[in-house]
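Reproducibility note. Readers wishing to regenerate the assembly model reported in the main text can use the exact inputs given here. Chain order matters: entities are listed in the order in which they were concatenated for prediction.
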Amino acid sequence: MTLLDEKATVEAVNPELEARSVRAEARRGLLHALPAYVYLIVFFALPLAIVFVFSFASRTSTGRPVLGGWNLDGYARLAEPVIRTIAGRSLWLAALNTAICLLIGYPFAYWIATRAKASTRNLLLVLVLIPFWSNFLVRTYAWRVLLDSDGPVTRVGEVTGLWGSMLFTQPAVFIGLLYGYLPFMVLPLYAAIERLDWSLVEAARDLYATRWEAFRKVTLPLSKPGVIAGSILVFIPSLGAYVTPDILGGAKTTLLGNYIVTQFTSGRNWPFGAALSFVILTAMLLATIAYFRSGAKTL
Amino acid sequence: MKRAPWLLALMLMVAGCGLSDGDNAADGGDSPGAECEPGQVDGDLNLYNWSEYMDPELIAGFEQEAGVDVTETFYDSNETMLAQIEAGGAAYDLVVPSDYMVETMIDADLLIPLNRDALSNLANLDPDFTAPPFDPDGAYSVAYQWGTTGLGFSYDVVPDPTQLSWGLIFDPEMGAAVAGRVQMLNDERETLGAALKYLGYSLNSTEPDEINEAAELVREAKDRIATFDSDAYDDLLIQGETMVAHGYSGNFFTAFEAADAWDSFGYGIPIEGGTAWVDNMAIPTTAQNVCTAHAFIDYLLDAENGAALTNFNFYASPNAAAEEFILAEILEDPAIYPPPDVMDKLEFIAGVGEASTLYADAFVEAKS
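Running the prediction on these inputs yields the following structure tokens for the assembly.
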């Protein structure tokens, strides 16, 4: 008698018991998911609701937000050309950063994942993670030293005649972003490539696929979850970056993140900052869902 | 027992004030600090101050004397501080707003009236600072330090400091030699104020057209400005990253002194004029330990402590009694205690009321 038959027998004998077990299962599921629900409500839905409320608030002449005098001024300002400039610049830098992280990160993750010895792989992974042991702010300031007019990067540029001092320019912001987010691309890619079933690649090669074809038709599609996860992990924080543009860009390569922070600090325009945050968050959420959906179809 | 007469006098004074002038909040009648006595502490001090402004040894001295911990948090512009205080959240016991910001914060009911009876050293304050226009009764604030905002520079690019001009930043021709080697403060009133001065307007203009013209000037100069920075500009100048730096007098001198670089760098007020300011200690309404805050103000009003502060940060002291302890070279330095002809070129930043958000918005747009 197989297990399936046994279950069928039980069901037939006592349908009420079966229904109860299904309900218990659902309750247990809810219980298991409870921490996640609480987390989502407390750290996502609630703050977002507060941001949403403030986006309609008014402000006093000193800039203090007032919950009252509800208006759409914050949203009206989203149409200003400066927003388009900043949003365009942020999207471009974030997309470029994601693309270059992927170009550098993929071969790197592939190389780590294909090392034979587990100890070598682990060592390489630790090396990727080591920068995280010191604060991001400190590391960004370190880049200031590397990029300033006496710094080694500038010296190399001067000797080769290729570039001058890049500190306080847009390229400096880009270098800072690339440096900061590369590990977020490498790690999910490594996870995806490492657990890949290599016999499928061998099979492709047996069937006369070239190395390139085997990579393009087998390895790459199988590692796609890593590509998607890595891209999102790099793209979204790049879009919201604000420390890097301030420290390496001289607070004049304004990105969306800086622009929003300024509204909440010295700019003292909470309603506008809240409206901007809310719209960006919603847009990002929709884009991410769409991206996952399109990716899931081909997974 | 020694303190008894003091206490008696104190109580009489409080009672006297209460009788004669019950409505005036300045006497501390119903203020949270009314019960505080000189030197009394009621908890640890949460100090919110400008960066590079407080001598760590003074903090250590107070911690030892009062037996409390002091936590110092830093801000780099009055507006950042204002935004934090308005938002509530962190309960700072003591803040150090500049002149115009004191006025703004009083108007917004963000400060508590001080209990002057808890400030035994208040008489040390120079009479010039006891009734400033931004706080006419001195009811809410006690002067901390004063100084000027102007330009720090390398003598390589400014051989003749008497011809120092904001044109180094705002004039494309004059600024050509230092393009990309210029920094401005990340501060709406100071930086737009410098542009307003260059254009020949008051830096307290409330005219939208003038403010926008100044913002446009900053925007046009942006390509020649390396960075908007209010923290590290002195270091950037010393390191050679910039050659002209917009900032506060004392920060430059502290940096010149630390790097022993007085021969290579100078500081001055441009011919078009600059800013004079007084920073003040004040207690926000959200303060938790009001008595400790009073005790700390009193501690800094002490003659020797006041002098130690000036000897540390190279800003002029509003503490008249401190003068005898201040280093002679500081007292005699015309860049720290400016002579009358320089004072004439300086303007105080004043509260601009409704135009406050105009400045905020125009500056954010100019940088973006």
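We highlight two features of this model. The first strand of chain B starts at residue 45 and ends at 50. The two ends of chain B are 64 Å apart (CA to CA).
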